[in-house]
Design brief:
Helix content is about 50%, strand content about 10%. The strands form two sheets. The chain has a nine-stranded mixed sheet with strand order 11-10-9-12-13-14-15-16-17, sandwiched between helices. An eight-stranded parallel barrel has the order 1-2-3-4-5-6-7-8, surrounded by seven helices. The longest helix has about 30 residues, at about 685-715. This is Thiamine-phosphate synthase. Pfam families: Phos_pyr_kin, TENA_THI-4, TMP-TENI. Belongs to the thiamine-phosphate synthase family.
Length: about 725
């Protein structure tokens, strides 16, 4: 089994104060701590053994229990019946090899690693010796004054990238570090003072857990039967999990032959094979939530219960499939008894009214009686009950979340959605709820958001047109409507696609008399000076457009790039133009004395309209062709693609041609392409379309601008 290290409590007797370590641990585990490390440097082995016995009793398998350093105390506590899952060792403590041999292959063994040498030493150990690393300190902490230099988040990231082992961040970790550390590769947060010294360890742990879950993609396992028609069972579960932002997994309890009109066959694989499926998942993947659906017989139910007892997932949502649509009971007495025991391992149970009546052991008459029965069941099993009113008569179909132990009784009103497409609603609701809980939502909020999604999916179900009976809900209707189905392209794909879109423009530029004459030296001076004069006018306004891109840029790096490009257009490029146009005066008013040609006016009007009427992403897409097409042309001129004379220093325009292959401009072009492609990759489809349109229009203007010297002569 791979351990869930997400919230890791390291005890400190001084910080726990009068409340004591045992009570602090009890409250923190109530709040969601997944692993507890008993650390008390001053206690004797006998005292440590006694504490392990007491902590094992209080934790009661709800979290893993390890002890810091004291391997002998762990062994002694195990002999006395305590569940001690392993040890955490420092670099100078007992050999991890001895710990593995003494505790066995299933034990959890952690090792402190603070620098590259430690990581190298871990790599030299036999595979399977160490299960996880405690890496820190993240920042200076008073709980361990002899700690090594603080790593910070980025130092932590650099170290953990060098290992495949799960790494827990430790040392000065606060709740606001959660997202950054998870993004940096942390498998969990090891917390000392933030929990031990908390006024309310339960609430503090819950807050940590919510932040941790919200920062990642929940891994949700469905344990249920299969529906080959896709509307119910694991097929519906996997769709529901995906619709709510989770990663879905499935262990099959039964194979059915069914469609929207009913079930015609059932095959239940051996329970031993189900256990193989479950073990295969939990040996490799941390399971953030479990949804349990159809369990065909007592052997299957007991197998699931035994696996839950070992893995102890933090969220278990059980949809008790017990009564067929016809009203017939689906489980025999032995299976029903086993299911009742399984309920005690769940966190939320989601029965319909018929199933609630069976579980409560009495008939139910009306909604008020259903709420009373839900309270009875919740008190009996110690879990929340989401009672569903879909089987009530009439237009009102409320649901309610009842959790007696936590004082929750929340009703959710609703009116019936008139549709025959109700196949798999129970499966879909429970798996969606498990995913929402695994994302860090409170039970009340998770039920509210799940119901809202389910009602939307019911309303849009007619559009699927699946089957002749009770069709499925439309799990992705809302996502399709709001986000579409177009795939976000990677930046490198956008770069290649956009470049290909300019192929015709580039081919036309290559054939222009201006380019051919510029390359072979036959270009007359008048069209060349005409081009320079128009380009000077262009550059003056282009620099203002680049300055606007700098003003709109979302990051300092982008702001600096576009500002530097604007400066280069004014200083470097215009000075080169002036060396041809006004060599005696330099860059002054006479440099811009020419009347703008139609191509110049059209190009600048386009850029100004985007700059002062569009948005940042559209603007940088519009200026990109001036970088990209020029750099490409210069590269090919200097590669001899247009003839060797373009590279000859005796060429009449040699100094000008040299600017086309300037390495600094080529580097700037690569940066511009990267910025635009990155922006397009994260843009919404409509925004990306506008960017592409601005890019293509500018590319066409580039062609017209190169053609203008001869077009102007013809028109004259």
């Amino acid at each position: 089994m791979i351990a869930d290290l997400s919230l890791y409590l390291v005890t400190d007797p001084d910080l726990c104060g009068e409340r004591g370590v045992v009570e602090t641990v009890r409250q923190a585990v109530d709040g969601g701590v997944r692993i507890v490390q008993l650390r008390d440097k001053t206690a004797t082995d006998a005292e440590t053994t006694a504490q392990l016995l007491e902590l094992s009793r209080v934790i009661d398998g709800r979290a893993l229990l390890v002890v810091n350093d004291r391997l002998d105390a762990a062994l002694a506590a195990r002999k006395q019946g305590a569940r001690v899952d392993g040890v955490h060792l420092g670099q100078g403590d007992a050999s991890v090899l001895r710990a593995r041999e003494a505790l066995g292959p299933e034990a959890l063994i952690g090792l402190t690693a603070n620098n590259a040498d430690h990581f190298e030493a871990v790599r030299a150990l036999p595979p399977g010796t160490v299960d996880y690393l405690g890496v820190g300190v993240i920042r200076p902490t008073t709980t361990k004054p002899d700690h090594p230099p603080a790593l910070g988040v980025e130092g932590f990231r650099a170290l953990v990238e060098a290992t495949a082992l799960p790494c827990v961040a430790i040392g000065g970790v606060a709740i606001d570090d959660t997202e950054r550390l998870r993004d940096a590769g942390a498998a969990g947060l090891a917390v000392v003072s933030a929990l031990c010294a908390a006024a309310d360890p339960t609430a503090t742990a819950e807050a940590f857990v919510r932040r941790w879950r919200a920062a990642g993609t929940p891994r949700v396992l469905s344990i249920a039967g299969s529906d080959p028609s896709g509307g119910a069972g694991i097929q519906a579960d996997l769709k529901s999990i995906a619709a709510h932002g989770g990663y879905g997994m499935a262990a099959l309890t039964a194979l059915t032959a069914q469609n929207t009109t009913g079930v015609s066959g059932l095959h239940v694989p051996l329970a031993a094979f189900l256990r193989q499926q479950l073990d295969a998942i939990s040996d490799d993947i941390v399971v953030d939530a479990v949804k349990i659906g159809m369990l065909a017989n007592a052997d299957v139910i007991r197998t699931v219960a035994e696996w839950l007892d070992v893995v102890r997932p933090p969220i278990v949502v059980l949809d008790p499939v017990m009564v067929a649509t016809s009203g017939d009971r689906l489980l025999d007495q032995d299976a029903e008894a086993a299911l009742r025991e399984l309920l005690r391992r769940a966190h939320v149970v989601t029965p319909n009214l018929e199933e609630l009546a069976v579980l409560a052991g009495r008939s139910i008459s009306g909604w008020a009686d259903a709420l009373a029965a839900a309270e009875e069941l919740s008190a009996m099993i110690g879990a929340a009950v989401l009672v569903k009113g879909g089987h009530l008569d009439g237009d009102d179909v409320p649901d309610a979340l009842v959790d007696v132990a936590r004082g929750v009784r929340r009703e959710f009103p609703g009116t019936r959605i008139r549709t025959a497409n109700t196949h798999g609603t129970g499966c879909s609701l429970s798996s969606a709820l498990a995913t929402r809980l695994a994302r860090g939502e409170t039970p009340v909020d998770a039920v509210a958001s799940t119901r809202s999604w389910l009602r939307e999916s019911l309303r849009e179900s007619e559009g699927l047109q699946v089957g002749r009976g009770h069709g499925p809900i439309n799990h992705f209707a809302g996502l399709w409507a709001r986000g579409g189905v177009e795939t976000n392209r990677a930046p490198e794909e956008i770069r290649a696609e956009w470049w290909q879109r300019t192929a015709a423009v580039r081919a036309s530029i290559d054939e222009l008399p201006f380019i051919r004459g510029l390359a072979d030296g036959t270009l007359a001076r008048d069209p060349f000076l005409f081009y320079l004069a128009q380009d000077a006018l262009y550059l003056r306004e282009y620099a203002r457009v680049l300055a606007e891109a700098s003003r709109l840029a979302p990051t300092p790096r982008e702001q600096a790039f576009w500002a530097h490009s604007a400066e280069g257009a004014i200083i470097g490029e215009l000075e080169l133009h002036a060396s041809w146009l006004t060599p005696d005066e330099g860059v002054d008013a006479s440099t811009f004395a020419a009347s703008p040609a139609p191509a110049t006016v059209a190009y600048l009007d386009h850029l100004r309209s985007v700059a002062f009427g569009g948005d940042y992403a559209e603007l940088i897409a519009a200026v990109l062709p001036c970088f990209w097409l020029y750099t490409d042309l210069g590269r090919r001129l200097h590669a001899g693609e247009f003839g060797d004379y373009a590279r000859d220093p005796r060429h009449p325009y040699a100094t000008w041609l040299a600017t086309y292959a300037d390495p600094a401009f080529e580097d700037a072009t690569d940066q511009a392409i990267t910025l635009v492609a990155d922006a397009a990759a994260i843009a919404a489809p409509t925004a990306r379309d506008r960017m592409l349109r601005a890019f293509e229009v500018s590319s066409a203007h580039e062609l017209a601008f190169f053609a203008a010297p001869f077009a102007s002569a013809v028109s004259a």
